[in-house]
Each structure stands twice: as C-alpha cells, then as structure tokens.
Write a structure and sequence with these properties.
- The complex is a heterodimer of chains A (about 40) and B (about 375).
- With about 40 residues, chain A is mainly alpha-helical.
- Chain A contains 1 helix and no strands.
- The longest helix of chain A has 30 residues.
- Chain A is rod-shaped, with a radius of gyration of 18 Å.
- The N and C termini of chain B lie far apart (about 75 Å).
- Chain B has 18 helices and 7 strands.
- Chain B has about 375 residues and is an alpha/beta fold.
- Classes of the chains: A mainly alpha (about 40), B alpha/beta (about 375).
- At the A-B interface, helix 1 of A face helix 1, helix 2, helix 5 and helix 13 of B.
Chain lengths: ~40, ~375
C-alpha cells in the first residue's frame, strides 16, 4: 500500500479509536450512574 | 519529493489526495486499527494511571475547579504516598467546615503559634461529604499521619439510612477502601469485587471525567475553597421553604442513629490503632438561626435533643473530644449565608482561631518527630 494512503488510514484509526474509547467511557458513566458529584442541596 | 515505483516523482497534490483517501475511506484496516487504539488506551490507563499520578496531577483529572471530590482524592493520596513525619492537623468534613475555616495555611500558622512548634494543616472537605466518605479517607490516611484528626459529625450524619445510601453516589472518591466496603456491606449495600488495579477499580470515577481529555493540552484547573462566596444570602422565604426540606431529612433519625453512631465508634477505634494520632469529632458549623427558625417543627426539636444526648454518650463512652465551636467563636446569624455556611471573613477568622487553639491543646504531649526505632 502507498505510504501516504497508509498514513491516512493510520490517522483515521487513531481518531476513530480515541473517539470510540471516549464514547465507551461515556456509556459506562451513563449506565453505572457515575457522575462528577457536586453538592446541590440548595 | 517521493519517487514512485515507476521511477517518476509524485507531485505533492497527488500525495495529499492519497492521504485524504486513506483518512476518509472506510476500510477494514482502519476499523482494526481503531479497535487496537481502544485496547491500547485501555491498557495504558491500567498501567499509567496510578495513585501517584492522581496525587500529583489532580488538575488532569478534576472536571473543574469545583470538582471537590477529585481534589480531596488527590490530597488524600498525596498524604498517603509518604510516611508520617512531622505533626499535622487533618480536618475531614463537608462544606460547612470548608467555608468556616479561613484556609489550611492560616489554620497551620495559628496552631503552630499556639503549640509553639511547626504543624501542617490538611483540610479534606467537600460539599456533601458524609461519614462513609470519612471512613474511606481515615482508613487511607491512618498510618500516614501524626497529630490530630478531626471528623465532622452532624444530625444529618446520624440520620443516614439504607434508602439514602442507595440513592447517593457512593463512589465519589477516586480510591477504594476495604474498610468502607466492609462498613457498607454491614449496612446492607452490595459492593463489587476488586481486581487490584487502581484504574480499573475506580473506573466509575474516571469514566465520569472522560471529557477531561482536553486537560491534557490545557490543564489549568485549580481547587478553590470558598465556593459559597458566589451564592446569595437566604431570604426569609427560603428559610421557611428549605426548613421543611431539611427537617424532612430527619425522618429516619430515631431508627438509624445507633447504627450511624457505631460507624463513628468503629472509625475512632481504627484510627486509635495509630498511637501517634489523637482523634476528635467536630460538629457541623450551624447557623444559630436554624435552631430558632425551625423550633416549630416537632421532628426537628426531637432530633436535636437526641443528637445532643448522642454526642454526650459518645464523648463519655469513647472518651473522644467533641468540638462544637459556634458559640466559642461567637458566630452570629449574619455571619452565615444560609443555615450551615459561614460567609463573613471576620467570622471565618474567629472560627479558625478557636479551632487552632483547641487543636493545639489536643496536640499537647505528642513528640515533634517520629521516634526512630533502635
């Protein structure tokens, strides 16, 4: 495969992988009820 | 210039087209690569995110300057990362103590002056921090402190019940405690199995802060202490409205006070296993107006009377000093913004001075340096 095309595929993989990782983290947070606790008593 | 297989040079626009083609065309290779990246990030987290990193780079993990539980976690892990050396005073509590104390630095200076020797002050306070969080924090810090540790106690703490535990986020602190797990199991709350890896065991703490990825490039998040300074003072209407809510919290008081007192008793016993640590309880800093404002609620009167009796019993049975400093610090209703938050800087100074004096008395008799074993 052409070097420049391979570099493009690599960039796509890194971007997609990072977004997928963050999406999984968000999904885990939503499904387990995990949140940044900030007291809102009043 | 790139030489193609045919020996001809490829012009830059063609290279760019090929790169864009690679970036924009869905392919099995890119999908496999993306999954590898996910796995790599996951493994990197498990290997690189350690208590030490959390302790030293809290700005990376705190969602914002009001993410108190992240800052308390980082502070506690920092203390726990080193053996106890000099004397210190550690105050663990909720926003009422956070607002009443001028600053840990001022507290340290006043205690040092009063005690006549250098003392470090640690303020581990966060809005809504309860006695189960205190169990986790005191368990983590017990063997890393010498001096005084003060745990906050309040009528609200003695009112905690299983329904409240179930509906409150339990994993707010970014570390796990076997002792806390044990306490919660005793209270009937199921706790998950731990795998022994910091990142994986605290996945909820980090998952909730996944959007913090931008902090890797712009980590400018710093802890702030007096968060209440931005709030408005309670109006008379608010006093009436919130009164019903707060008194409503006391509905379980009679049923669960003994179980909650036992949580405190066990916590005090565990802390006393460190002979270089003096344990005390410190009461929530409550606006004197609350007592008169809500005197009409029979439930509030009953809960207050039982709470006071509980404190006397606890002080006698466990020989633990209980600091109630509102009167001694001459705090007046106008010094508060609501029913537990001191707003006035002069009032904060008075409270900190009185607290420092009491802490200095508790420190009496403790040696300055850890005695070296022969």
């Amino acid at each position: 495969m052409n070097f420049w095309r391979l570099l493009g595929v690599l960039c796509q993989a890194v971007t997609l992988g990072t977004l997928l990782f963050l999406a999984i983290a968000k999904l885990v947070a939503l499904s387990t009820g995990a949140r940044v606790f900030q007291y809102e008593g009043f | 210039m790139v030489i193609s297989q045919s020996g001809h040079e490829q012009p830059p626009p063609r290279r760019l087209r090929q790169w864009v083609d690679g970036v924009s065309t869905p392919s099995l290779g890119a999908l496999a690569g993306a999954l590898l990246v996910v796995a790599a990030l996951f493994i990197s987290g498990a290997l690189l995110v350690t208590p030490k990193v959390m302790a030293n780079r809290s700005e990376l993990f705190a969602a914002n300057s009001q993410d108190e539980f992240a800052f308390v976690t980082a502070h506690a892990l920092k203390i726990a990362s080193a053996p106890a050396t000099g004397l210190s005073v550690t105050v663990i509590g909720d926003s009422s103590l956070r607002e009443a104390i001028t600053s840990p630095e001022v507290l340290a200076r006043l205690v040092s002056l009063d005690a006549g020797r250098p003392i470090v002050a640690n303020l581990l306070a966060a809005g809504g921090l309860n006695h189960f969080d205190e169990v986790a924090l005191s368990d983590l810090l017990r063997d890393h402190l010498r001096g005084v540790i003060l745990l906050e106690i309040s009528p609200n703490a003695l009112n905690w019940s299983r329904p409240i535990l179930d509906t409150t986020t339990l994993d707010r602190l970014g570390f796990k405690s076997r002792t806390l797990d044990h306490e919660l199991r005793m209270a009937g709350v199921k706790r998950p199995h731990r795998v022994g890896n910091y990142f994986l065991d605290n996945y909820q703490f980090f998952a909730a802060r996944s959007s913090n990825v931008t902090h890797l490039f712009n980590a400018s998040c710093e802890a702030r202490q007096h968060l209440i300074d931005e709030s408005g003072r309670w109006s008379d209407t608010k006093w009436k409205r919130e009164g019903r809510k707060i008194v409503g919290w006391e509905q379980h008081f009679g049923r669960f006070e003994e179980a909650n007192l036992d949580v405190y008793r066990r916590m005090i016993d565990r802390l006393r296993r460190n002979p270089a640590l003096r344990v005390g309880l410190i009461e929530t800093v409550e606006n004197p107006r609350a007592q008169t404002q809500w005197a009409g609620f029979a439930r509030d009167r009953t809960a207050r009377a039982r709470y006071k009796a509980d404190l006397i019993r606890l002080a006698e049975s466990d020989k633990v000093p209980i600091l109630g400093l509102v009167e001694e610090a001459e705090l007046r209703p106008d010094d508060f913004i609501d029913y537990i938050h001191v707003y006035d800087s002069g009032a904060r100074a008075r409270f900190t001075r009185v607290l420092a004096h009491r802490v200095a008395n508790l420190l009496a008799g403790l040696p300055d340096e850890k005695e070296k074993s022969l």
